[in-house]
Specification:
Elements: E1 8-14, E2 17-23, H1 30-40, H2 45-52, H3 56-63, H4 71-81, H5 85-89, H6 96-147, H7 162-192
Antiparallel strand pairs: 1-2
Helix pairs in contact: 2-3, 6-7
Length: 193
């Protein structure tokens, strides 16, 4: 077993034999994981070596963390025991379930980020539509003066006409929806804490 400096160990001597007892949690090394997978599947080193087309000594060295298999063999071991490569390679994962929990957590955080971007994007699009409506009212005022020779004295009067009312309504609606979504997200985040 691999014992790092962060582990607390207790040494007990009985009948002249020293026993080292590791206290607390520890991270499993590749060799320990391979040994556990092999034993859980009731396989001998010889049988696993035969399946992977390597020597029994190679399996022994891998399990003792004396040597590390090449990439092809790691992928073969992963497929053979039906475990993710990450489980085999990273010491921080002591179980396959731990990887699944991490992936689920990352997935949820990704979804929250996506929703946050969507609400912000909706608000920005709404404000852009409102800005376009105001600019278009000034353009309509200028064109009306050029074509007809007359126009409203206040350019914003053009916002009351049907096409502009739709643009303004859409802009205001999008801003409102975006703000509502953002508040909902904040409430959800505060409830999680």
């Amino acid at each position: 077993m691999y014992i790092s400096a962060v582990h607390t160990a207790k040494v007990i001597t009985k009948n002249g034999i020293q026993l080292i007892i590791v206290l607390g949690e520890f991270n499993m090394k590749f060799g320990e994981k391979l040994y556990k997978l092999r034993k859980d599947n009731s396989m001998s080193q010889e049988k696993l070596a035969e399946r992977l087309n390597v020597s029994r000594q190679a399996i022994s060295k891998w399990e003792q963390n004396v040597a590390v298999p090449d990439t092809d063999n790691i992928v073969l071991i992963s497929k053979f025991f039906q475990v993710p490569v990450e489980y085999l390679l990273f010491d921080k994962y002591d179980s396959v379930d731990q990887i699944k929990r991490t992936e689920q957590k990352d997935s949820l955080q990704g979804e929250k980020t996506t929703h946050r971007c969507n609400s912000t994007t909706i608000i920005i699009i709404g404000f852009i539509l409102l800005l376009v409506a105001v600019v278009m009212s000034f353009v309509f005022q200028f064109l009306s003066l050029q074509i007809k020779g007359e126009c409203f004295s206040n350019a914003l009067e053009y916002l009351k006409h049907l096409p502009m009312i739709l643009v303004v309504g859409l802009g205001v609606g999008l801003v409102g929806i975006g703000i509502y979504k953002k508040r909902s997200e904040r409430r959800a985040n505060s409830n999680e804490r």
